[in-house]
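Contributing: when you submit paired examples, paste them exactly as shown. First protein:
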Amino acid sequence: MTVEAKESVLRSKFRFNPNGSTVEVSVLCSNPLMAAAEAVRLIFHRWLQENDFKNIDRHFGIMEMTSRKAESYAKAAPTLENRAVESPELREARKNLRKAEKNLGKLLLDPTFPSLFD
């Protein structure tokens, strides 16, 4: 990208050559230490991102709110169903219980295991 610029505190009127055509834009930059080419590069990258968001919103509605209506939980509560949800600790305890029961069953079927009734 070729950039021609007048250096000033509020750099303005940049000309650059993207893809063979000259475009003149005004860019404000309050950082006097930033090079003109860097300011133009950053503003155009930002412009590309904003243009992408605009197109995504236009075609896919990512910024669309489905409703501005708010409803209190107390009002919605009668229509909601209670359902039991196992905690990770309960699932782990049940897994350990099944494993212990399986091991106990193997021991009880083992002919070398001493019987309690002998």
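Second protein:
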Amino acid sequence: MVVCEEFLGRSHISFEKRFREQLTDASSSVPRNVAEGFGRFRPKENAQFVRIAKGSANEVLDLFIEAHTKGHSATRSFRSSKPLPTEQSGHWSVI
């Protein structure tokens, strides 16, 4: 989430309100769903919330890919930060 906040702080991204909202919502959803699932104390319920969190993490990855496609590359600005999505052999992954 820290990387998302740093990325959104960049001036040329700040004007895209809907993109900012989507990235903020998806990135904050990941830890909330993991925490809620853990708090259920039932393995099946926990697994369901972890699946939801993974979907939100994939949404964050997709939003970074969209930003990269639009020319707002995150990889140049955050080399020393947390892992960021990169394209390798036509596939996107988090490094």
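If you have annotations for the second protein, write them as plain sentences, like these:
The chain has a mean pLDDT of 79.
Residues 43-69 form the longest helix (27 residues).
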